Fold this sequence. Notes:
Elements: H1 3-21, E1 33-38, H2 53-62, E2 67-69, E3 75-77, E4 80-87, E5 90-95, H3 109-120, E6 135-142, E7 145-150, H4 168-171, E8 186-192, E9 196-201, E10 214-219, H5 223-232, E11 237-239, H6 247-250, E12 256-261, E13 266-271, H7 281-290, H8 293-299, E14 305-307, H9 330-339, E15 354-361, H10 364-378, E16 382-389, H11 391-400, E17 405-410, H12 418-423, H13 441-450, H14 456-472, E18 476-482, E19 484-489, E20 492-493, E21 510-511
Parallel strand pairs: 1-10, 1-11, 15-16, 15-17
Antiparallel strand pairs: 2-3, 4-5, 5-7, 6-7, 8-9, 9-10, 11-19, 12-19, 13-17, 13-18, 14-18, 20-21
Helix pairs in contact: 7-9, 13-14
Amino acid sequence: MSKHRRFLYLIIAIITLLTACTGDGGGGRPLETLVVGLEGNPSTLDPRYASDAYGVRIAPLIFNGLLKMDLSGSLVNDLAEKWEQPDALTHRLTLRKGVTFHDGSELDAGDVVATYHFAMDPQNGCPISGSLKTLESVEAPDPQTVLFKLKSPYVSFPFQLRLGILPSELAGEKALGERLIGTGPFRLITFKAGEEILLKGYKEHFGGAPKCESVRFRILTNATTRLLEVRSGGLDLLQNAVPPYSLKFLDREEGLKTLRAPGASYQYLGFNLEDPILSDIRVRRAIAHAIDRETLIAYVMQGQARPADSFFPPEHWAHTDKAPGYVYDPDLSKRLLDEAGLSDPDGEGPLMRVTLSYKTSTDKTANEAARVIADQLSKVGIGVEVRSFEWGTFFSDVKKGNFQLMSLRWVGISDPDVLYYIFHSTSTPPGGANRGRYSNGEVDGWLDASRVEFDLEKRAELYRRVQEGVVRDMVYVSLWWPDNVIVLSESVEGFVPYPGGEYTSLANVERR
């Protein structure tokens, strides 16, 4: 590490400490601070490791990638001012000049190379490593140019160029804590797990200084507390973090406004396919036929969602409406359980055929959904023990495969290559998100083919086959595509909802 950067890191550490020690102590806050409520705690804000919804949405405020997605879901330049693809195996990116990290040092190609070298190494356990397997090399022929060489054509590789870039001096370390330094519009000041995240606007950002001086994320896991805080002015903004039942009251609340837009996220019930009971597809199908999604959406989501019939919503180019339908049919569910050898011990009596564990977070809406599903499953003789955990514990168990049933949400779906990350047999954690340990050679073949198919319609057909195969094998029970719902103070202007619930537009938010 250069003496210059070592000195700058020391200065930043001192500033961070002083800022933490001179907080407002819970009293008044300056108008320049925007306060955002979060329903859960990010596992990390490190872009190399962020994989939960909270970390994925907040990390881009601190870090820039070479490319980024715009509001329409298209890839556009970010740290790169030029992106070229001379052939199917080569991507050449020219960096913007004069971009600086939060420590004042200038970004160069060496920082990009160091970040990707770390993420590529499977020993480091980065979730993106599985998607970088096709990468042969990353080189810096000069300080402004980065050259990516692929082992084989990979049509979705450009989406991997969104990875947030760290300084080379930090990019080789795993546990950075609050020493996260990026080039984004905000720099990290403090991250108190379970309490708050404080970001300060970076005035030298290449895209211009943020309009608000700082953003404070308050982590409030209790839904009632979040409602009280946004009504009293303790929060300026809540995104997808209010119980659906509260919207009819918040719509009439003086001083607040609500924004709604169709979402691109996907809520599902997941199975552990290595479980002795759930490895039987008849049991999984029985569960799917016992769930009444219309009732779930009406009661739990108060109509603020669309029933999902596959992975991607209808407006997505890879959507399929040909996936096998698992309609609500309790009688069929009972017959499937009988076929699986799980007979009803007492007819219409209270005894269950089998009892399963259903893990979820402490989020109020997630718990309500779990309990409604448990009640519906009990009607066909499946007992369900709902177990709620703090987000970090819950998500850790899911990644380890320590569950029978669980429910999660995939957020901000745009590139359908995410199906490889989720369902390919080689994509088990930590290098992927095949958390149910699904394996199907035919589906693997379609996913492999989709990565080298450059004809959009042929590629869409491969993704449709994947979705239909996954539904046929009942890896997930598709539940709904939730709407994006934002509640914010009337004095806040400039916030634009993104389909995946990203916080990208916070840099443009200001007060009237």
